[in-house]
Design a protein that fits this description.
Layout lengths: L2 H20 L6 H7 L4 H12 L3 H8 L3 H8 L15 E4 L2 E7 L2 H5 L6 E7 L6 E6 L2 E7 L5 H9 L6 E4 L1 H13 L3 E6 L3 H10 L8 E2 H7 L6 H9 L12 E2 L12 H20 L11
Parallel strand pairs: 2-7, 3-6, 8-9
Antiparallel strand pairs: 1-2, 3-4, 4-5
Helix pairs in contact: 2-3, 4-12, 10-11
């Protein structure tokens, strides 16, 4: 992020936090602008440029009832979708990913002998902790709700025998591609075989769309394993890239989210905003601004 983008990011983060805290009581443009110490016209231009839609429209996406709207209008049937293979590649939710999985034996040894670099980066959803091996990103956590220490402890305990080294420079290229959703990034998935199947199914959900835990269970050939699927979704170590935020309850409830429900709501709202803004431009998707 350059200095201007960093400033805009922090302004938008504060605005989104205010909108989220207001819940179902929408804030007027004048109220939001006043709390940002800007004129209404300037704030609306800045917000619309950053998010893609007006503050009023974005508040509608953040409303809890938006999940039911997504299930009605943008539901994805996974048994007709094609996720990438574990060693394949493909264009997924506007981001080019190459991914491979750790062998079951290595996973069973708690990643012993593996060196994992880590670093903190800005994102559209608050501070992001990125971890990676020499093969790609293996962890992505968002600390806006949990706090930095809890996010760090959470990822580290997943691979207790690994060696962790602070080295953001080793991850910067992948992190920029991942958080800005431009360019190419690599993933090194570290999980149990059942988890890998669930995470692979999540990759088939397009940006701005959702599916259900039951759909995922059916897609991996275990239609009765809805509860186990929910657990595996919650254990996804690479949030946002493997889009666990797009999995909802069949009832239309948001379900859980490991890094905090406000973050899940913000992610779904952000993606809806980008999709609708792109539709308004004749189908041309907006390019996300730096992250």
């Amino acid at each position: 992020m350059d200095q201007s983008d960093r400033y805009h990011y922090h302004v938008m983060r504060r605005a989104i936090d205010l909108i989220d805290a207001a819940g179902d009581a929408p804030l007027s443009l004048a109220d939001l602008a006043a709390q940002m110490q800007m004129s209404p016209a300037h704030f609306q231009r800045l917000f619309s440029s950053w998010v893609g839609v007006s503050p009023k429209r974005y508040q509608q996406y953040l409303n809890l009832s938006h999940a039911k709207t997504l299930l009605r209008d943008r539901f994805t049937t996974l048994d007709t979708a094609h996720a990438v293979g574990l060693s394949g590649s493909g264009r997924l939710h506007d981001l080019f990913l190459r991914w491979e999985a750790m062998s079951p034996g290595d996973y069973a040894r708690d990643a012993a002998g593996l060196t994992i670099a880590w670093g903190w980066f800005d994102s559209a959803f608050g501070p992001a902790l990125v971890m990676g091996t020499d093969r790609g990103i293996c962890g992505l956590a968002f600390a806006a709700e949990t706090g930095a220490d809890a996010a760090m402890a959470d990822l580290c305990q997943r691979w207790p025998a690994a060696t962790f080294i602070e080295n953001p420079d080793a991850l910067r290229g992948w992190a920029k591609a991942a958080l800005g959703m431009t360019g190419e990034t690599r993933l090194h998935m570290i999980g149990a075989p059942f988890q890998l199947k669930v995470w692979e199914a999540l990759l088939a959900i397009p940006s701005g769309h959702v599916t259900t835990y039951a759909e995922i269970a059916g897609a991996i050939g275990n239609p009765k394993a809805v509860r186990a699927v929910g657990t595996a979704v919650g254990r996804n170590p690479v949030s946002w890239l493997i889009p666990c935020h797009r999995a909802l309850r069949k009832s239309g409830g948001l379900g859980g989210y490991h890094w905090g429900m406000p973050v899940k709501r913000a992610m779904l709202a952000w993606e809806s905003a980008r999709i609708d803004a792109g539709d308004a431009m004749g189908g041309k998707a907006l390019e996300p601004e730096g992250a």
